[in-house]
TrEMBL record:
Matching InterPro entries: Ferrochelatase (IPR001015), Ferrochelatase_AS (IPR019772), Ferrochelatase_C (IPR033644), Ferrochelatase_N (IPR033659)
Name of protein: Ferrochelatase
Main location: mitochondrion
Keyword GTP-binding appears in the UniProt entry: no
Record function comment: Catalyzes the ferrous insertion into protoporphyrin IX.
PROSITE patterns (alphabetical): FERROCHELATASE
GO cellular component labels: mitochondrial inner membrane
Superkingdom of the organism of origin: Eukaryota
Biological process per Gene Ontology, one example term: heme biosynthetic process
Pathway: Porphyrin-containing compound metabolism; protoheme biosynthesis; protoheme from protoporphyrin-IX: step 1/1
Cellular localisation: Mitochondrion inner membrane
Homology family: Belongs to the ferrochelatase family.
Length: 422
């Protein structure tokens, strides 16, 4: 079990109405020499001996907060060659495909309340995590919350400008942690976010080869955390809560269906680590549950005509219903907050259309205090380890020839590990 204390007093999964959705630090950093790091906050001066402030930057894809933002979101998504490589015509094809897809996706966001809740949850999770970190890691306090999205506001570029405005970098140095919110690493998700962060780092701070001693921001990366005990506990507890809603005599025969966003087979065959890492989360959660129920891992949300990793979630539910199973719990296992894939695809399309009251979904992690304590524990361990990134991140996929991946990995690996990157 984690030995983490928390000051959280919020009711489970509730966001207070007055929470600021703008994660700009409340206390702006004032540039004045202090503590060997060149700055201190105006009102929250780091404690004596603290190496802070530390910027905690949560990375995620983001989603359109309003229906009107769907086209911009999809345009950025289809322009991302790390996610959807469309060749030399990407710049023209991307916006075309995005425009054609917009009405369908707008309708889906309208049906889940008019937008993606991912910004609200990410900002909340980050702010709460930083409060806990200030308590459990005073050596690196104060911790300043930032969110950097790949395809929606707050975009990585704007987050980086905010960091500089707040006194990080720009000759001051200062520490920032890029903390991916995808527990399992994929080059199409975390890899893409890191490539984007590296790009803006070069544009806004200059393309320096090393990190140390040049007054630029000192970055390190939390790149995967698929089996962290707190993450596993939060998933397992949400499954137990759903299992408790079935009559006792039926409970152990309920089928648990873990569902993750699929990947194109071309990405799987390139050697992307995601599929294997998702399987490790599933195994760890089932181990925590004592393998109490039959379970399978299935894959959702494939887009376009190419081959994707299966079995598909929708087919799985259909086939099991045909085989006579009508008690199932769907568990979104690769994303940490609600989004169109849970609220629309799973709830409305898969569960709604199956039409059996015994088919349910485990709650998403969202504002779950166990989950937020896990984030703080992961961050604390990282901050104390002094690691730039995991060893695993230094290795490119077997089939990867991308210069962008190579240079990005060399940068984040830092001087000690960059010679390992090939
Ligand atoms: C771990 C999560 C995800 C992986 C891996 C992933 C890979 C991946 N996605 C696409 C294409 C699209 N994804 C879209 C939306 C979307 N994707 C994820 C997560 C992962 N994607 C989420 C949570 C969302 C929804 C965001 C929200 O609502 O907040 C979309 C846009 C929607 C649509 O047009 O259907 C596309 C397109 C590819 C090609 C890919 C792997 C290469
Ligand atoms: S695609 Fe995986 S490292 Fe480049
Ligand atoms: Fe996706």
């Amino acid at each position: 079990m984690m030995a983490v204390r928390t000051s959280l007093s919020l009711p489970c999964r509730m966001i207070p109405n007055n929470i600021s959705h703008n994660v700009r630090p409340a206390t702006q950093l004032v540039k004045r020499p202090l503590n060997g790091h060149g700055f201190a906050t105006a009102t929250s001066v780091p404690k004596k001996g603290s190496k802070g402030p530390t910027a905690m930057v949560l990375l995620n894809m983001g989603g359109p907060s309003k229906v009107a933002e769907v086209e911009d979101f999809l345009s950025r998504l289809f322009a991302d060659a790390d996610l959807i490589p469309l060749g030399p015509l990407q710049k023209y094809l991307g916006p075309l495909i995005a425009r054609r897809r917009t009405p369908k996706i707008q309708k889906q966001y309208s049906e889940i309340g008019g937008g993606s809740p991912i910004r609200k949850w990410s900002e909340y999770q980050c702010a709460e995590m930083c409060k806990i970190l200030d308590e459990i890691s005073p050596e690196t306090a104060p911790h300043k919350p930032y969110v950097a999205f790949r395809y929606a506001d707050p975009l990585t570029e704007n987050m980086y400008k905010q960091l500089l405005e707040d006194g990080f970098g720009g000759g001051n140095g200062g520490r920032a942690v890029a903390f991916t919110q995808y527990p399992q690493y994929s080059c199409s998700t975390t890899g893409s976010s890191l490539n984007e962060l590296w790009k803006w780092r070069n544009r806004l701070e200059g393309p320096r080869s090393g990190q140390d001693g040049d007054g630029a921001i000192q970055w390190s990366v939390i790149d995967r955390w698929a089996t962290h005990p707190g993450l596993v506990e939060a998933f397992a507890k949400n499954i137990e809560d759903q299992l408790a809603t079935y009559p006792e005599e039926k409970r152990s025969s309920v089928v648990i269906l873990f569902s993750a966003h699929s990947l194109p087979m071309s990405v799987v065959n390139r050697g992307d680590p995601y599929t294997a890492e998702v399987a490790t989360t599933v195994h760890a959660v089932m181990q925590r549950l004592g393998f109490s129920n039959p379970y399978r891992l299935c894959w959702q949300s494939q887009v376009g005509p190419s081959a994707w990793q299966g079995a598909q979630t929708s087919h799985t539910v259909e086939n099991y219903v045909k085989k006579g199973f009508t008690d199932m719990i769907l568990v979104p296992i690769a994303f940490t907050s609600d989004h169109i894939e849970t609220l629309y695809e799973l709830d409305k399309e898969v569960i709604g259309e199956a039409g059996h009251t015994g088919i349910k979904r485990a709650e998403s992690l969202n504002g779950n205090p166990t989950f937020i304590r896990a984030l703080a524990d992961i961050a604390k361990n990282h901050l104390q380890s002094g690691e730039k990134c995991s060893r695993q991140m230094t290795l490119r996929c077997q089939g990867c020839n991308s210069e962008r991946c190579l240079e990005q990995k060399k940068f984040f690996a830092g001087d000690a590990l960059k010679s390992l990157v090939r």
